[in-house]
Amino acid sequence: MSKRKRNEVASEDGTYVTKKNPKMNIVAFILCVLIATIIWLYATNTDQKDREEERTEQGSSSVQAMTETSCEASL
Prior knowledge:
Elements: H1 3-7, E1 8-10, E2 16-18, H2 22-74
């Protein structure tokens, strides 16, 4: 008998009911939490890098503006 058929039991009305395996439920839960944590860490890390790039771009553009202003003032 295949593993699938061992987990299925015919009920009185002819439908099949799948037996629950508590160990597999725990393993599935742990895997879901682990995958969710990895996705969360990736998303926060990517967001931080984007914000740092925006800050450096804004900082360099403000430095250029200040340099241009000081050059024009000295002329």
